[in-house]
Amino acid sequence: MTIQFNDETFRDDYTFTNSERAIKRFPFPFHEDSYMYSVNMEQHQGGPEGSIYEKRFDVDEHYISEMKDRALVLDEDPLRCQSLPHMTLAGWDLLELIMVSKSEDYPDLFELHRDGNNWHWINKPLGIEQKFVFMDESTLPYGPMEYITRQTQGDFALLDQRDENLWMDAGTVTTQADWSLDFDIGMNFFEWHAPVPLAAEMGVFKRALKFLLNIQQGMPARRLNWTMTVNPLLDTSPENYHKWGVQKTTLTPENVGQKQYLRVELQTFFRLPRSNGMVFPIRCYLISLEDLVTIPKWGRRLHRVIRDVPEELATYKGFIDNRPLIVDYLSKFDDGAPTSDGVWPD
Amino acid sequence: MSAGTNKIGVVVTDIVPLNELVTRFKFERADGGLLPTFSGGAHTVIEMKDGETTRLNPYSLMSDPADRHAYTISVRRDDAGRGGSLFLHKNVRIGDEMVISYPVNLFALDLRAHKHLMIAGGIGITPFLAQIKQLSATNGRFELHYACRNQALGSYVDDLTTAHPNNVHVYFDDDGQALDLENLLDGQPLGTHIYICGPKGMINWVRDTAERLGWPREAVHYEEFLAPQSGKPFTVKLAKSDLEFEVGEHQSLLEAIEAAGVDAPYLCRGGACGQCETDVLEADGEILHRDHWLEDDEKESGKKIMPCVSRFEGRIIVLDR
Asked: CATH for B2-105, among 3.40.50.10140, 2.60.40.10, 2.40.30.10, 2.60.40.1120?
């Protein structure tokens, strides 16, 4: 089906909205009435028709506006996109992966024509047409990673694999849940996860790394992560905390339904063939509480999850101060009825 | 991750004997499509239906990683082995259909290196052939030192010295030529990475020498696939699957588990990658550890086994599988 793209903003006047279709396909992350960390990985080989899992790189109604927001962030802060010198090959891997995937998965929106290394890329939603030579950086307006990630929703961490570890050696990160590429660049898997509470003691990272190191070509994996964000703000970065942190104090019982968003990340993992690196796309989906509770099962369950989540997690995810407000609001949509297993609406 | 391993149906399109021991095989996709690109140093696991036995042996891809029309491997005949190389040499014909895995790389180039110093022994040359093609296409700096028995058994010596006269150095054992390793390592520029593929003795020699000379561990890379060895038959019990069966003399424990219909994880099948690590619940006898994945204390504990290469001697071994 053809996608109707929204004209909306993720800053200042926050005109972001989810259509009814977007609400129905929202990746609600809780499969039961409580939450704790786990190595919740599964194969990323499609999913139910119309769901965000169906395509390798989901394109939705927010595409054009998200790309405009990314351009604004990069304009103000070029360090949101960095690539260490040895990561250029991985950048070409990523460009190839995305162009091939999108042109196959959305033939009405994207086209890729290849004649040897002479490539012709057409991105209809963004009105881009580019002829270039694959593996020749001088034929693109940006490096390969920056070029393609300016046209793809979600953040991208490009990881080098060596020494039985993964290293965050390149990326484009403008829609992040309070972490900084500029701070993490060059770090290994354990180093960049050091701020996460509880999980290391649980052995989660050791097991997750072992899983990731063994991801093979053609066998991508995925998981969901989540947090809470006040206002539909994509760029919740440490660099701009002074701008958005204060917005967390603007919640009231009257506006919490509209202003408080559940933020869910679809994290996918692909082995990159030419560089033997990995790409870790982190795609952010936002939904306001008032839209979320239109699905009764989700309203009931989110109330129970947020109410019971351990204090360390609520603190780390940045909503500990607003938890009482959120729980009060959500309690109105929880009649105590049992909820069915799994994430899908009843 | 065997359950999720992507397989490719291929046709053997060329078989070229290179010398009395080594033969090259070329595979193209059976459906006529393109093969996945890969990175230099990657291997593929080839499935061989040898009568009742299914063998899965890893072989380094030696073709140009950017060439998606065909993969090539070179196989050294091992007359004393369990039969995988013999099967390829004797039973496989042009036009045969086979199944191979997607490429997996456990011997990747460190792309940070300012220079790649490659040391190959015998058939260990094969991963370097792909790496050299990859580096040549990206202006990477490399130097290859290749030891083999003699001119007649020196697979690809002529191709390499013709294509890269200034970067390839060959040593024939029968002519008494030997690599002056200390001198070689001593003269390398900062940022050089060493890669070794060859017999165990050569790998240990280079690793020990590099360590003694103060090379950082992270700058020394090696690949050694162990072929599973034959041994006395033994009985294994899989606790979770509730199965008990014999492991044959020429069968690996992993192969026996697969033959029993249990989908066990694996990647390299050569004792290197750690993927098939399995907990031992009970062992009335002695585990013969042959991998280089488990730490010495893990081997001594008797609580872990790598079923791709390790065996057991005794009454019965019970695994958590």
From this structure: 2.40.30.10
Smallest CA–CA distance, residue B37 to chain A, in Å, is: 6
Q: What is the pLDDT of residue A201?
A: 73
User: Residue B217, CB half-sphere, CA atoms under 13 Å: how many?
Assistant: 3
Q: What's domain B234-319's superfamily in CATH? A: Beta-grasp domain (3.10.20.30)
A304 belongs to the catalytic site: no
| Among the listed residues B128, B254, B140, B115, the one whose alpha carbon sits nearest the alpha carbon of residue B190 | B115
User: Residue A131 falls within a domain, yes or no?
Assistant: no
Residue B267: which of A87, A214, A273 has the nearest Cβ? A214
Q: Kindly indicate whether the domain formed by B115-223 is annotated with CATH number 3.40.50.80.
A: yes
**ipTM (interface predicted TM):** 0.86
Which residues of chain B does A217 touch, with a Cβ-Cβ cutoff of 8 Å? 6, 36, 38, 102-104
User: Interface of chain A against chain B, CB under 8 Å?
Assistant: 43, 85-87, 89, 135, 160-163, 210, 214, 216-219, 273-276
**Min distance A53 CA to chain B CA atoms (Å):** 18
Residue % of chain B over a pLDDT of 90: 79
Q: Which of A324, A264, A333 is nearest to A297 (CA)?
A: A333
- Which of B37, B104, B275 is closest, CB to CB, to A274? B37
Which of these is catalytic: A70, A80, A223, A263? A223
B245 vs A79: CA distance, rounded Å: 59
3-state secondary structure of B176: coil
Token representation of residue A123:
């991105």
Task: Return contacts of A57-60, CB within 8 angstroms, 24+ apart.
Answer: A57/A98, A57/A101, A57/A102, A57/A105, A57/A152, A57/A153, A57/A154, A57/A281, A58/A153, A58/A266, A58/A283, A59/A3, A59/A102, A59/A106, A59/A109, A59/A125, A59/A153, A60/A3, A60/A22, A60/A25, A60/A153
Percent of chain A with pLDDT over 70: 99
Q: Where would I find the H helices in chain B?
A: 84-91, 126-137, 157-163, 181-186, 200-212, 253-259, 296-301
Q: What percent of chain A has pLDDT over 90?
A: 86
Asked whether the beta carbons of B305 and B289 are under 8 A apart, the reply is yes
Q: How many residues does chain B have?
A: 321
| C-beta atoms of A89 and B42 within 8 A | no
Q: For residues B75 and B21, what is the distance between their CA atoms, to the nearest angstrom?
A: 8
List pLDDT tens digits, range A202-259. 777 887 888 888 888 988 999 999 999 999 999 999 999 999 999 999 999 999 999 9
Structure tokens at A213: 């190191």
Is the Cβ pair A218, B102 closer than 8 Å?
yes
- Residue A170 is assigned to a structural domain of this protein: yes
pLDDT in tens, A188-217: 999 999 888 777 777 778 878 888 888 889
